[in-house]
Amino acid sequence: MAKATQPQPLVGPILIDKVKELGNLSKEEKARECGYYTVTKNGVERVNMMKFLNALIDAEGIELDSTSNGQGRGGRSASYRISVQSNGNLLIGSAYTKKMGLKQGDEFEITLGRKHIHLRQIGVDDEE
């Protein structure tokens, strides 16, 4: 008995167009129609929703992965706001120091204003 060949799953703009064309079908039916299914050795058809949804996300150009370029774990992104902690400290997180390319041991001169703090890195010209 000849084995039926399974169609290649659709990707990119073709996938998006096909999903729109399928209109009111269920998610599972859309996934199947777009080729996101397998047939088990017992002949049972299984829809692969994760692959289908991931392909849709990729086709739409949505970036869900961390942009840390494989350098350790993700962490928080810079919000450019900090709060005084209960012990009175201000903590500047690693998101800022990484963005500035700072390294352990870099030193700063602190200048206090009425409602601002100015940090000037010691040993660096004010070119920037």
UniProtKB/TrEMBL annotation:
Protein name: AbrB family transcriptional regulator
GO cellular component term, pick one: protein-DNA complex
Annotated ranges, domain SpoVT-AbrB: 79-124
MF-aspect GO terms: DNA-binding transcription repressor activity; transcription cis-regulatory region binding
Keywords: DNA-binding
Keyword Transmembrane helix: no
Organism: Waterburya agarophytonicola KI4
Pfam families: AbrB-like (PF14250)
